[in-house]
Amino acid sequence: MKEKLELICKSVGAALLISLGNYALLKLGNPIGPVIFAFGLLGVCYMKQNLFTGKCGFLFEDKIKIWDLLLILIGNLVVGYLFGLLFSTMDEEVVTNAVAKVSTWSVSFGFFAKSIMCGVIMYIAVFMYRKGTPLGIIYGIPLFIFCGFQHCIANIITLGVARTFDFSIVICVIGNFLGSLLMWYISRDWNQKKYLMY
Known about the structure:
single chain, Glycerol uptake facilitator protein, mainly alpha
């Protein structure tokens, strides 16, 4: 029970940190917003919080239970949306920016591809942090934002700010998950038989 409570609390913490970064992105826009957004993932990694997009690529390596990963995802999505709603009461300009951003999303192959590429970058960023450098985060986060790639937790926060919902979030979750696992599979140590997938 204590482990589940800790998992949920750290999922809330991750959602809060990404919410702060996403608010800055909506408030400041390019080019400053994407750089400040990196604060969110830096906080998640250094404070050891549970962010779905930072965990899913390490599903096999860290032996994460699929139900725990699902709980992290639900916690991130629900709390992220609630923080988005909270932020929507603070600044109407941010709400306008969020509505404009959501209007560009769609349930399409292109959107799915952008979600996969975000997953790839997220895996690389966290992998590099685990190897002792924050450069993957500092450069990777602005990279995926400038490229227009889609991050499911940032998107659910934006939906909360816009006070709406869009089914593209489902596509985004799946794409982020597959992109992270794809990068893990490509970059894993092929000599470790425990990671072989047949």
